[in-house]
Amino acid sequence: METAPGTLRRTPLSAVHRELGAKMVPFAGWEMPVEYSGLITEHLAVRKAAGLFDVSHMGELEVEGPGALAFLQRVTSNDVARLLDGQAQYSALPLPNGAPADDVIVYRRSADRFLVVVNASNVEKDYKWLLSHDGGEYELKNRSDDYALVSLQGPRAQAILQPLTTVDLASLRYYHFADGELEGQPATVSRTGYTGEDGFEIFVRPDHAAAAWKRLVEVGSPQGLLPAGLGARDTLRLEARMCLYGMDMDETTTLVEAGLGWIVSLDPAKGDFPGRPVLEAQKRGGPPRKLVGFEVLGRGIARHGYAVSVNHEPVGAVTSGTYAPFLQKNIGLCYLPAAHAAVGTDLEIDVRGRPVSARVVPTPFYKRAQ
């Protein structure tokens, strides 16, 4: 990856973004496109057709060796032993307090070779944290600079990608991946994403990223595809109630409180891992607070950090909040004491000194038709 002036890094697609007139912003130590043609336009393109995202800032850590599986069982929350070759799993790196050091996706290439994709802001932290649990017959490598990663999301993603790849997309199930070629170059295609839509995340060599991006845009544009930036990625994931690390969860919020108890395995065969006693107690007895979704009833957008009250008593703060372009509503997430977390609970949110009514609603806010 290129190094930008100052401390910001650039992905292999940086020049392409500039050619397209993208608005570039700092994000997690990287210079990234926040929008091209407009956040709402890009958001709706993903919901109705397709959007193409540069997510090359994400980190890739490789665990390889006969002890790789046992190691990952000890340091992740989910049951890695359930994975088959070519299967991926959403998981987390849990701390002793039950909170995530990060949320991750674990890819099983073989019984002794795994790839762990981590958040851009946490690559070095995660790498050092995993090294601190060293012990066993495996090798841990930071392979982040060896990959470029693009995400093609939306109902027309398969139709756009299939003519360009040797991977049989029709047979590729959700959270599965396969190696093949994209335009004659090596590529790994994964049926995963962060938008609530069907789609694919495509790993390619950095020197092939620009050509791959341009061909996807060339083939996809007649079908409604638009390049999309971080702005649309954030509003899309929030409509789908997908947590953002550092906003909706961090090292002070347990996985169960964040609504991610489903990625915590208590199977005896899984064995011990950091935070298991805390998470086990919360899964069985309930957490003291819960991350809930709310819809703003009054006028105003509830932004991150805005104070939340129930019956005029402060109870927390907004973790994520935005205008949802597809739903045409103002929505958000916040932690509430368990006693006040039921659907239908009325809230007050301090929007720049003005109390605005809101209500706890079921999530995800948006769910695509199957």
List the helices and strands and how they pair.
Layout: E1 2-3, E2 9-10, H1 14-19, E3 23-27, E4 30-35, H2 39-48, E5 50-54, E6 59-64, H3 68-75, E7 87-94, E8 100-110, E9 113-118, H4 123-131, E10 139-142, E11 148-153, H5 157-161, E12 177-182, E13 185-190, E14 199-204, H6 209-220, E15 225-227, H7 230-239, H8 276-285, E16 289-296, E17 307-310, E18 313-324, E19 329-337, E20 346-351, E21 354-361
Parallel strand pairs: 5-15
Antiparallel strand pairs: 1-2, 3-4, 5-11, 6-9, 6-10, 7-8, 8-9, 11-14, 12-13, 13-14, 16-19, 16-21, 17-18, 17-20, 18-19, 20-21
Helix pairs in contact: 2-7
Structural overview:
About 20% of the residues lie in helices and about 35% in strands. With about 375 residues, the chain is α+β, with helices and mostly antiparallel strands. The chain folds into three domains: about 150 residues, Probable tRNA modification gtpase trme, domain 1 (Gyrase A, domain 2), CATH 3.30.1360.120; about 90 residues, 2-Layer Sandwich (Alpha-Beta Plaits), CATH 3.30.70; about 80 residues, Elongation Factor Tu (Ef-tu), domain 3. The protein has a six-stranded mixed sheet, with helices on both faces. It has a six-stranded antiparallel β-barrel with strand order 16-19-18-17-20-21. The longest helix has 12 residues. The two termini are about 35 Å apart.
